[in-house]
Design goal:
The protein is an all-alpha fold and 319 residues long. 76% of the residues lie in helices and 3% in strands. The protein has a three-stranded mixed β-sheet. α1 packs antiparallel against α2, α3 packs antiparallel against α5 and α8 runs antiparallel to α9.
Length: 319
């Protein structure tokens, strides 16, 4: 991979060149990263320890939370280090690996959002067959196939970006190794690489969007036929969290990757921060604060921990 390259390193220009803004940005992104780790880890632990959440919907949610942790960890630690350091150098190999892992987890997240939409479709439109269609085995097969296809896609993306000749500038006008900033440094013709990347992004994104749209069209039709207003509200409420996550993820992806390279501007850095740093932090709140089952399980866990502490105090006082 990248056999034609001549550069051995790159230098990030970062989010901003202003020295006064770097410390506040460091504190903000550090807090964001900590909240991302705590929030998504909390979702995973809560689902594992709560029997009421042992359903396909929350299985996919734990996978989603795990991917968000990995997705953010690929970008945030390096970005935080660069905000406090004058040396923003990254080796060619490290840059290539950062892009590969970023692309891998981005594609997995794209597929997971589609799986979650299909899960809601079956739960609402075919409730009697839900356990049969979305079995534990099917869940694992869907996730495994997603990881496999994402690996293939990430390899193709990485080869397309880093397979050219790097013989000119070494400054990446970004805070991580993303498609457009890196391709700008390629000396050879990038048209073919851009077409391959565009084709595979389109395949991954559009196929996921089609699954999501078809799932929600079917859900809306089913919900509108429900006689009970309470049932309709419950169905829509169940889907609202997923729709918010879908809007955040695909909105920024469409803006960043499905537009001509010539139209990319400085606003891309802001959009990249939203989908690579902010969105993984918001997802746990979207899926917990708007979900009665998650809030109920959280309250039960809190009471259980409180009762255990009180029991320990009573036992220790007796001894």
């Amino acid at each position: 991979m990248g056999g034609n390259h001549t550069q051995t390193k790159f230098i990030f220009l970062g989010i901003t060149e202003s020295p006064y803004a770097q410390t506040p940005l460091f504190l903000f992104f550090l807090l964001t990263y900590i909240v991302t780790l705590v929030g998504n880890s909390g979702i995973i632990i809560l689902v594992r320890v709560s029997p009421s959440l042992h359903t396909p919907m929350y299985f996919f949610l734990t996978q989603f939370a795990f991917v968000d942790i990995c997705y953010s960890t690929v970008i945030s630690p390096r970005m935080l280090a660069d905000l406090l350091s004058e040396d923003k150098t990254i080796s060619f190999t490290a840059c290539m690996m950062q892009f590969f892992t970023f692309a891998f987890f981005a594609v997995v997240e794209c597929h997971l959002l589609a799986m979650m939409a299909y899960d809601r479709h079956v739960a609402i439109c075919q409730p009697l067959l839900y356990v049969t269609i979305i079995s534990s085995r099917v869940c694992w097969q869907l996730v495994a196939s997603s990881y496999l296809f994402s690996s293939v896609s990430a390899i193709i993306y990485t080869w397309s970006v880093f397979g050219g000749s790097f013989c000119g500038p070494i400054h990446i006008d970004h805070f991580f190794c993303d498609v457009v900033p890196v391709l700008k440094l390629v000396c050879s013709d990038t048209h073919r690489s851009e077409m391959v990347i565009f084709a595979f992004v389109t395949i991954n994104v559009v196929s996921a969007v089609v699954v999501i749209l078809l799932s929600y069209i079917s859900i809306i039709r089913t919900v509108l036929r429900m006689c009970s207003a309470q049932s309709r509200d419950r169905a829509f409420h169940t889907c609202s969290s997923h729709l918010m996550a879908v809007s955040l993820f695909f909105g920024t992806v469409f803006f960043t990757y499905l537009q001509p390279p010539s139209s990319h501007r400085n606003l891309d850095k802001v959009v990249s921060i939203i989908y690579a740093v902010v969105t993984p932090m918001l997802n746990p709140f979207i899926y917990s604060l708007r979900n009665k089952e998650v809030k109920g399980a959280l309250i039960k866990c809190g009471r259980r921990m409180l009762n255990q502490r009180q029991l320990r105090r009573v036992l220790s006082s007796r001894t």
